[in-house]
Amino acid sequence: MTESGATIEQEIAQLEKQLQEKKAGLEQQPEQKESLPDKEVLREVVGEKIQQNSPAYIPKSVPQTQTDDTNSIPSELKDKIQELINHVFQNSLEQGIKEAVKSNNPALIDAFHDVLVDQLYDTLLERKKLDPIS
Length: 134
Description:
Residues 20-39, 53-73 are annotated as: Disordered. By secondary structure, the protein is an all-alpha fold. It is built from five helices and no strands. Helix 1 (8-27) packs across helix 2 (38-53), helix 2 crosses helix 5 and helix 3 (75-90) crosses helix 5 (106-126).
């Protein structure tokens, strides 16, 4: 369980709040000429959560033109990633991240990060908490 016993619903609500705070902070930075797409901000927030459990993890920067492409994930990782994603949505984000970090497999953690961001982004779009990338 997470520290407060949060459910995935509570964690998603917390992510929504963190996204808004991070976007507001980025907009106030003078060197930030244009705002990042919501999905990129979400990627940063989730990356920070993973780094809390695995300080050595450095999320790869993904080009903004990249689309949801699970075909680029090696087939031997797909099943494990799906297990981890299921774990997140059945239990908690923190537990799913801890399970991914336990694998000690940087390729798995990175692919998990990508797929998790895609899934969370889709969930937030469905709830109309974010605007689609145009």
